[in-house]
Known about the structure:
Layout: H1 2-11, H2 34-37, H3 49-58, H4 75-83
Amino acid sequence: MVSAFSIGAMEAGHEVISINVAHKNIKGCMACEYCREKEKGICVQKDDMQAIYPEILLADMVVFASPIYYFTLSAQLQAVIHRTY
């Protein structure tokens, strides 16, 4: 599905960047509030999310795709979404 969406978007003239988070080192949100209280918008954790944050900020659209496990997204993708808090 990701491939089909990407091809369609590129054929329509859009730039597409696909990131497979299943193979990244991304920790879950610790709910420490560092990003809200100490350094606005900067997470205290330094992992592979550091390369993903700029891509999200520059994007006109973000599409999440995941297999469904226990009626929800994969843990890896959930971690990415939670880290955008």
